[in-house]
Write a structure and sequence with these properties.
446 residues, alpha/beta, Rossmann fold, Four Helix Bundle (Hemerythrin (Met), subunit A), 3 domains, four-stranded parallel sheet, 13 strands
Length: 446
């Protein structure tokens, strides 16, 4: 039984999908005007792990994540470079997709773009105006937060607690009936524009995701995810619009990951401490990056520092080194791997992950299973079935976390080197044994 923390109810709840055996999940994607930073990598990994967990528990998951490919920042960058906005957007869509692949994430099933959804967005806004939930003001269209009683249910903020204009993303605050009303359509003469019943312009950020969810998954989905920074105003404003037109808050479970800090400080461009995800992956490698990202519970802040990286490196080495030893020794002994695994260890791991993705507890199960693997490898008479089941159990656990077990290639030449190394050790010919050991090390087998 999977349980997830629901930001809407502030409780860990049993997960019950709308359709038995199937899960619909939407995770807000990037505004594509620059490379993904390491903070962007956290939701990529968190929701990839959630998808893998759901699949491990037998669900069929439809995972949608959008690209916001029209925005002031994209337009400004295009003007600066003297190119079309589409050139900028495609450049960083490709870069973002590359990071997803480099992180060994399962790519979303559907990646809708705002520019490809414009007709539906305009129709959606027009319906909000028609039903009295939105109004035009000199070419701009605003959503009336007073028109829904549920406003604030996702972020648990009351209107009188909010700052005026907090939900505004682009443009000046003009013509509003209520200072908390947010833009659905913005009149503009800058950059790319679309014709609408209210004149030329482009949509507001909060409407785009609602429409893409409705288009690709339906009027109500199982899981809506994203970083905690999106909880307000973005997700609150999405829910309000859906409530206005469809009478529901868009998703049954609102799941948010906490932020990432660098050396204990919030990562921001103003502080000059932004790290591009592609550079981190190149430096640390995919496995270490993912292990570090999942080492802290997804709802807790993750501090990215030399110390936490080194801790993660040592932990991962404790896991992958015995895995390599098992693969090498099984290959040298011609022990066939028939795919068996230890069901008790696997179930213990899943029970931890099912508990709101408690990765720290799941790591403890991995370490305990690795301990059993080490013990089976050290037996005077090695039982290869035991080695196989513990080795395969760890691999299944790592697969849910998106950590890859390196493939070991062992041929007849390597087997002969390994045999001669053991013979030299037995004869106490340590100089010869060291030479064979070095040869095996160069081949990555020790």
């Amino acid at each position: 039984m999977i349980r997830l923390y629901n930001s809407k109810t502030l409780q860990v709840e049993e997960f019950k999908p709308i359709e038995e055996g199937r899960v619909s999940m939407y995770v807000c994607g990037p505004t594509v005007y620059n490379h993904a930073h390491i903070g962007n990598a956290r939701p990529m990994i968190v929701f990839d792990v959630l998808k893998r967990l759901l699949e491990a528990e037998g669900y069929k998951v439809t995972y949608v994540s959008n690209f916001t490919d029209v925005d002031d920042k994209i337009i400004n960058k295009a003007i600066e470079e003297g190119v079309d906005e589409g050139v900028i957007a495609q450049r960083y869509i490709d870069a973002y997709t590359d990071v997803r692949k480099q992180l060994n994430t399962e790519l979303p099933d559907i990646t809708p773009r705002v520019t490809e959804t414009m007709d539906q967005i305009i129709d959606f806004i027009a319906e909000l105006v028609k039903t009295g939930h939105a109004y035009e003001a000199d070419g701009d269209v605003y959503f009336s937060v007073d028109s829904v009683d549920t406003y604030g249910e996702i972020s648990h903020q009351k209107l009188d607690q909010l700052e005026a204009g907090a939900s505004e993303r682009v443009g000046e605050v003009t013509g509003k009936k209520n200072p908390y009303d947010f833009a659905l359509w913005k009149k503009t003469d800058k950059g790319i524009q679309w014709d609408s019943p209210w004149g030329k312009g482009r949509p507001g950020w909060h409407t785009e995701c609602v429409v893409m969810i409705n288009n690709n998954l339906g009027p109500k989905i199982d899981i809506h995810g994203g970083g905690m920074d999106l909880r307000f105003p973005h997700h609150e404003n999405e829910a309000a619009q859906q409530e206005a037109l469809h009478g529901n808050s868009l998703a049954n479970y609102w799941v948010h990951n906490a932020m990432l800090s660098l050396n204990g400080e919030k990562m921001s461009k103003s502080l000059g401490n932004t790290m591009w995800a592609k550079d981190v992956i190149e430096t640390l490698g995919v496995n270490l990056t993912r292990w570090l990202m999942s080492s802290v519970h997804y709802r807790k802040e993750l501090n990215f520092s030399d110390e936490t990286v080194e801790t993660a490196r040592k932990e991962l080495d404790k896991v992958l080194t015995p895995m390599k030893q098992a693969d090498v020794k099984m290959a040298m002994a011609d022990a066939a791997n028939e795919g068996s695994y230890d069901e008790e260890s696997w179930r213990a791991f899943l029970d931890c992950m099912d508990d709101d993705m408690n990765t720290p507890n799941a790591y403890a199960v991995i370490f305990e299973t690795v301990k059993k693997l080490n013990g089976s490898l050290r037996q005077r008479e090695v039982q290869w079935k035991d080695v196989e089941k513990y080795r395969n159990s760890v691999e299944k656990m790592l697969e849910v976390l998106g950590v890859q077990v390196p493939v070991i290639s062992v041929g007849e030449e390597e087997k002969e080197l390994y045999r001669k190394w053991n013979e030299a050790k037995a004869a106490k010919d340590f100089e010869t044994a060291d030479a064979y050991r070095n040869a095996l090390s160069e081949k990555g087998l020790l």
